[in-house]
Sequence to fold (444 residues):
Amino acid sequence: MNKTIACISTPLGTGAISIIRISGENCLKIAKQVFFCKDKENIEVRKLYLGDFVYKDIKDKCLMAFFKSPLSYTGEDMVEFQCHGGEFLAENILKSLLENGAVLAENGEFSKRAFLNGKLTLDKAEGIIDVINATSEAELKAGYKMLKGELKNKVIELQNKLTTGLAEIEVTLDYPEYDDESSAILSIKKVLKEILFEINKLLATASAGKIIKNGTNIAIVGKPNVGKSSLLNALIGEDRAIVTSIAGTTRDTIVETISFNGMKFNFIDTAGIRESQDIVEKIGIERSLQSIKEADLVLVVLDNSNTLTEEDKKLLELTKNEKRILIFNKSDIDKTLKFEKEKSIEISALKKQNIDKIKQAIFDNVVDKKMDMSGLILTNIRQITNLKNAKYALEDTLQKSDFESADIVAFLVKKVWDELGKITGETEVESVIDEIFSKFCLGK
Fold:
C-alpha cells in the first residue's frame, strides 16, 4: 500500500491563499483529525466545505475538498486544503497532517503517482513542466499542446499502425500454409514508410522547438561608441546597459531577454571591437568575438553619420558569413551609409526610432515561414531523442526486410513499437521516469 503523502502546493510566502495537498488511502481520515465542519461525518466528493482548521493553539477558517479515486489528479483519494496565505500557517497545517500519519511528498510525487495510476503519460508530464516553466507565449503554447496529449495521440496512432502490420505478419507465422510471407512483408514495408514520413515531419519541428525553448541568441556588435548599449536599452525598454560618450564603456557581455510575437529574443550587448592594450577590455573583446560565433543572428551596428572606418570594415569582413542584419544608427543626424544588396535598417537608438522594425526583422529571420507554429512542435530533448531512435530502428527494419525472414521482421517492428512507447512512458525504464519527475517542484 502506498503511503499517504502531503505537501504545500503553492509557493511559500505571503499571499491570498495557500493550498496543501494530501494523496493516499488515508487522506480523508487524516484530514478529519484537524478539520472541523458541520458535515464532517458525511463529506461528499468534489464539494468545497467551509470549516475550521485546529492544530494546538493555531486556528484558521479554511476550505477543504475531497476527491475520490480514480477521479482525482493522482488517481488516488485526495484532499486539498485552501487556507489563508502565509508561510507560518501553511507550514503548520502541513506539520499537523504529518503528525497524524501522512509523510512528506518528494519532488513531483503527486504527478508520478498520476503517471503510475494511468492518469498521465510521460510526454504529458513533461508538458506540465514546460507550462510551469514557460517564459514566452510560444513556449506556453507548445507545453500546453504536450499537456493536452497531442504527441501521445500521434504516438498511439503510429503504434496502432504497427500493431495492425504485426498482426498480418504473425498470421503468416502461425498459418504458413494459408498465408504468403512475402506479401505480408511488402504490406508492412508500406506501413513503415508511412510512419517514417510522419516521424520525419515531427522531427522537422525540432529546430523551431529549440528556438521556442531556448530563445534566439542575438549578438549586438560594433566598434566602441557606435550606440550598441543604447540600442540594447531601446530594444528591452529599460536602461540596462551603461551609456557614456567614453569609448570602451562596455567591458563584458550583457544578456537581456524580451518576448516578441510570442518568441524569446536573447540580446547580447558586447564590448566594442577594436585594438586595445587594456587587459580588461581585451578580455571583453575576446568574448565579443566568441558571441559572434555562437549567436543565431548578429546585429552589426554602424555609425550612419560617418563614413566606414577600418574597424567597421574589419567587423563587416568578420561577420560576412554569419546571419546578420546591418543597423545604421544615428540616422537622425546625417545619412552617409548605404548597402543596396544587404538587409539593413536605419535607426536612432537615442530617439528609439525604428526599434520595432529590428524586432520584426529578427522574427522574420529566425521563424521558418513554412513551419506551422500553431501545430505540434517538439521542444523536449528526451522526446526528440526517442523519436530519432524510433526512426533509426524503422530505417533498419526497412533495410533488413528485403532479405530477412518474417519472424525477424516482426521482431524488428516490435523494436520500433517499443522505441515509440518510450515517448509516452509505456516502455521507458524506471530510472528515466524517476529523473523526469524529480524535475517537478514539491507539491506537484
Notes: Residues 241-251, 276-281 have pLDDT under 50 and may be disordered. Residues 70 and 76 are 6 Å apart (CA to CA).
